[in-house]
């Protein structure tokens, strides 16, 4: 019953019955409208609060916090086209590279260099090369010091890994000198605290990858 009541309330929010920030009617009113008890209404509200749609304010009531329930982010990423995922990575990684150039610690810089070296030698197996590549880029993102950016990067990893392995297996070659030089330029820009250059190196690399995968 609570699941059904939550679905009905969500439909009403989606339908525009309540605007963003609007206060919902009291539990008694909602219970009458939905044909359920107050405890069921409370549970339905709790469910929608957990999904970010409603928010309960002690002593004030229940308010609309979002006009729809967000889908599971991992599922959204799995269904997205590879072009959409790379475009999202451009936004994430270009900003992360600029921040990494500003904030990276000596220890983080050592990790970036270590990951770059590991990537350079992982040239005999497509899956190993992709894993090393993703580890390098993650080291740069982590150095940005923003856990939200790291979380968003991690969400894209399974989809990116799948597409990149397929592409490299089809092409049959990877780990060229030019490709390694592009990644070295990114590492150098972060090391030298050149934020603009780091962002540009990240953006250029991902744009080339998008063109290769699209």
TrEMBL record:
The keyword DNA-binding applies. InterPro entries: GntR_C, TF_FadR/GntR_C, Tscrpt_reg_HTH_GntR, WH-like_DNA-bd_sf, WH_DNA-bd_sf. It comes from the Bacteria. The keyword NAD does not apply. Pfam families: FCD, GntR. GO terms for molecular function: DNA binding; DNA-binding transcription factor activity. Residues 1-67 form the HTH gntR-type domain. Keywords: DNA-binding, Transcription, Transcription regulation. This is Putative GntR family transcriptional regulator. It comes from Gordonia malaquae NBRC 108250.
